[in-house]
Amino acid sequence: MALTRQKRSSTNCSNCEFRSLRMFCNLSSEQLKELDAIGTQWQLPKGAVLFQEDDPSSSVAIICDGQVKLSCASPEGKTLILKIAVPGDVLGLGAVVSGTPYEVTAEAIEPTVVKNIHREDFLAFLERHGEVSMHAARSLSSEYKNAFYEARRLALSPSAAARLASVLLDWGRNASCGKPQMQFTMALTHEELANLAGTSRETVTRVLGRLQKEHLIQVHGATFTILAPEKLAQLS
Fold first, then answer.
1. Which of 43, 67, 156, 198 has its CA 20 to 30 A from that of 146?
2. Whole-angstrom Cα distance, residue 10 to residue 37?
């Protein structure tokens, strides 16, 4: 789906609930005011594509609300889902800093709000603030570690159930924002969830049924609740 966007009234970054929980956004009040000034917020519908793999990098997008699917494709057209980005994640950071094309395609999987910042404005912001540059470096380091973790999960997890349990735990931890209850909206189809976990759609359906029977998770429509995170972690 092509990018259709609607301008949204500005939201103050200083009041964001994710500020202290996400590496890049945990800035001083003065720095956040400047970030507000150089960025523009957009409301994106489900299916909107923020940028595509191999496009020239022109801006970064900070997710304020919603979820974004990051994927890449082979020359034969096979698509691999790499990550589900959540509020506080900075999309396109590595490409903009290095001046290279986007490595992935970013697509909203539910109505999403992002703060878009043009490449030149963002780089100038980093140059003005050494502390912000360090936050950006830490965010890139975190992306590298996450990529390594995902590769290890796909290659070394003993079973499809273990990989799926790990994906669900990651989703629950990100959605909980430090709160005791791990509950989130599953915005992916079983086919997409299978792609993310490196298995088949039939296996995802079977494993989800098993996890519900064992009271490790609860599913009501698209709402998932992690009932026993410790046991799910042991499985993963």
1. 43
2. 9
Q: How far apart are CA 46 and CA 129, in angstroms?
A: 34
The predicted pLDDT at position 14 comes to: 58
Q: What is this structure's pTM?
A: 0.78
Query: What is the model's pLDDT at position 13?
Result: 60
How many angstroms separate the CA atoms of 84 and 179, rounded? 20
Of 136, 155, 174, the domain-final residue:
155
Q: Is the domain of 109 the same as that of 194?
A: no
Residue for token digits 């990018």?
A: 3
Considering only residues 96 and 32, tell me which one the structure prediction assigns the higher pLDDT. 96
Place of tokens 């489900």: 46
- As a whole number of angstroms, the distance between CA 99 and CA 106 comes to 18
Same-domain check for residues 35 and 149: yes
Task: Report the CATH number at residue 42.
Answer: 2.60.120.10
Question: 16: pLDDT confidence band, cut at 50, 70 and 90?
Answer: low
| Structural contact between residues 107 and 71, judged by C-beta atoms closer than 8 angstroms | yes
